[in-house]
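LAB NOTEBOOK - FOLDING QUEUE
OPERATOR: T.R.
BATCH SIZE: 2
PURPOSE: Compare the predicted structure-token outputs for two unrelated chains run back to back under identical settings.
PRIORITY: normal
REVIEWER: second-year student, initials M.K.

ITEM 1
FIELD SEQUENCE / FIELD STRUCTURE:
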Amino acid sequence: MKKSLFTLAAFVLAGFATSAQEVEFEEFDLDNGLHVILHQDNTAPVVITSVMYNVGGKDVGGTPDAPRTGFAHFFEHLLFEGSENIERGEFMKIIPANGGTFNANTSQDRTYYYEIFPSNKLELGLWLESERMLHPVIDQVGVDTQNEVVKEEKRQRYDAPYGGILEAIGSNLFKVHPYKDPNIGYMEDLDASTLEEFNQYFKDYYGPNNAVLVVAGDIDINKTKKMVSDYFSEVKRGPEVVRNFPKETPITETIKAQAFDKNIQVPAIIATYRTPGFGTRDAYVLDMISSYLSGGKSSVLYKKLVDEQKQALAVQAVNLGQMDYSVFALFAIPLGEVDLTTLLTEMDEEIAVMQTELISERDYQKLINQFENQFVNSNSSIAGIASSLATYYLLYGDVNLINKEIDIYRSITREEIRDVAKKYLSPNQRVELEYLPQKDEN
């Protein structure tokens, strides 16, 4: 009876995920190359205007002789400075004064700006984003101001306990691809950059043909199309972005490395693997593997190392998706006097089991349920839908993944999980990174 109820519940959830998540959208292009996606949902008087640019931390600025890291993240801040028609500092005042909220974020692969307004302020949102794209003011005052803002962000986030882990992973796992450098960049690069270099970076990457505009929420499709055309058609097309990043040599022997953090007292062990970019089927399988290993307190690694054996304060398996290469990482912080090598051995045991045996049907169904729940939640708000539409278009090349991505996860078999674990997660394919407290030199 329990099995029947479990199966019925899974079936009902699957049906709910299929029907509840159907997102309708309309796409078109302006003559200048700006791709536009509209999603109408009149259930609440809210609208989001968002622009995602195909530029991220991997796109360095400067010159070939003097490349500058961190430019995309710097521009995330700089493009709030103002425009020819918006006074300095007013951008971030106009939005809350009109009942809106806003934010922006940058990854290694893209930069995303958005505003959420009452729907009667749609035109204001479109004007603000068109001003950012059409004629922002990029001057020395703004550069100097945002330089200090970025430095403070680095102090708060990257200089916090364990805040340097991603930088340590990148610098050890990648040798030639720009993923080797932190998304926020090196402060000495930003300090050395010239105003001319910043203006050139904007010209190179922030053209309408290197972006997607998403408008979602309480809109009228035809009226919105006209407003989009009115505000964005005059933006001049930018140069075509051509990328030719160097390829990494596969890792065939274990690489051992150390990194030091002055802000921690307890070390950590991290095993990192260079895996395929997030658009590949194997990347989806690795998502499921990471969830199986550490997706919640009932997961394999948490139950073993934290609950049962009391060897770890924290343990996690993460599949960090990126366009060119993803990063799969095993991470653990020891409890008491437990050795880092012991933690790594214990985690490896569970990987070895996955490489030789099929996970149970019950665990497999639990995984499917987890991903269906994530799928429902990811598109449960207008903001989530707008972000998904932009991401699937710009990075995956298929907007309709917003409706059908869950089918990819459902189609993954237990045999694929075993085979992908065996293909990518062996010790000779990784960097073993000891993340250690920095000793006081005095």
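ITEM 2
FIELD SEQUENCE / FIELD STRUCTURE:
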Amino acid sequence: MEIDVLGAGEAFSPRDPNASVLVREEGFCLLIDCGPTVPQQLWSRDLSPDTIDAIYITHLHSDHCAGLGPLANQLESRGRTKALDIYCLPQGVERLKAALDFGLWPRPEACPFPVRWHDVRTCRTIGPMQCRIAPTAHSVINHAIRLDAAGKSLFYSGDGAATKASLELMKGADLVFQESWADGPENLEPGHFDARSCLKIAVEMTIPLMRLYHIRDDLIGQVEAIVAETDNVRVASAGEIIIL
């Protein structure tokens, strides 16, 4: 399993692209989240319009889904014909479809590639990967996802503080991406998580690799200092490729 970090930034970061990863397994390519600054990261990789097989949206905040329109526009303009599978919760379909249609305006009905919508709650696989989800504690409904394939596993939290369910989903994962808005509880805002709590989890659950992301811009230095003495926990950075 290959994880290409497209971005790790918080919603309005002036320097880091919005948090998103590309996951590749056996020739299948899954995009997790697509904020407004994510399409440019994809375009910079000069991918074929048929490269991305599926998209999973963790939640409906714009920094995780507002790039769908521009991405659809680019895929159309470059001649994609292969179906695109989008995984989300049912209540998200209308809003996400509106984003796609706006990107394809003025004739979304003429889109040359079909879009197939999937209720992620009922899916057990995405491509060649087994998948499971669990809610986190965020200001809107957000579901972390775990992907397993060929004996390796990725956990990706989306936004939000860890919950009993998401921690259970995290157990035994080879690589954990955990949102970490603040350095510690003293700077924490409701609906987010912090680096010190992440370190505690990494130790207690003996997580091999953990990447912290969606960090408040003015606290990145503090978070980097907190994890500097660890071998397995790092701040995620755009362009990093991790192979499990």
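REVIEWER COMMENT (ITEM 2): The helical segments are 38-44, 62-65, 68-77, 93-103, 164-170, 195-204, 220-227.
FOLLOW-UP: none requested
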